[in-house]
Amino acid sequence: MLEVILKRFEQPDEVRTFEKGRFETVHVGGMTIGRATYEPGWRWSVHVGRALGEKSCSVEHVGMVPSGRGTAAMDDGRVIEMKAGDVFYVPPGHDSWVVGDEPYVSIHLMGAEAYARAKTVE
């Protein structure tokens, strides 16, 4: 009989923390699913990328936004805003930041395994 697995982000398998944010992961069904929580003022290039020595995020993301608003700015100049209820695909080569004065939360169904992976930001 196959085992049913139930997990919660309140008890993640891994937590990656950085200034103004955290990224929690759970491993289930051969997948790594992530939850990003960023405070107002958070920006990827400053709070994650700087520690990695990168100017833009090289991770491909598929996910959804349960709360808050965030921006993804592509290296080619395109800019999109993501808000609660949106399902998103963001290709590699982007910066990102929180919009407004509320925390931004996103669930990552793709890209969570590689996101913010470095000893300097874990």
Q: How would you describe the overall organization of this protein?
A:
By secondary structure, the chain is mostly beta strands. Helices cover 7% and strands 46% of the residues. It contains one helix and nine strands, in the order E-E-E-H-E-E-E-E-E-E. The protein has one helix at 44-52; strands spanning 14-18, 21-28, 31-38, 61-67, 69-74, 79-83, 87-90, 94-99, 104-110. A hairpin with a 4-residue loop joins strand 5 (69-74) and strand 6.
Q: Could you say which overall geometry the principal axes of the C-alpha atoms support?
A: globular
How much of the polypeptide forms β-strand, as a percent range? over 45%
Tally of separate helices: 1
Mean pLDDT: 93
Cα separation of the termini: 37 Å
Going across the biggest sheet, name each strand in turn.
1-2-3-9-4-7
Please summarize what this structure is:
The protein has one helix at 44-52, and strands at residues 14-18, 21-28, 31-38, 61-67, 69-74, 79-83, 87-90, 94-99, 104-110.
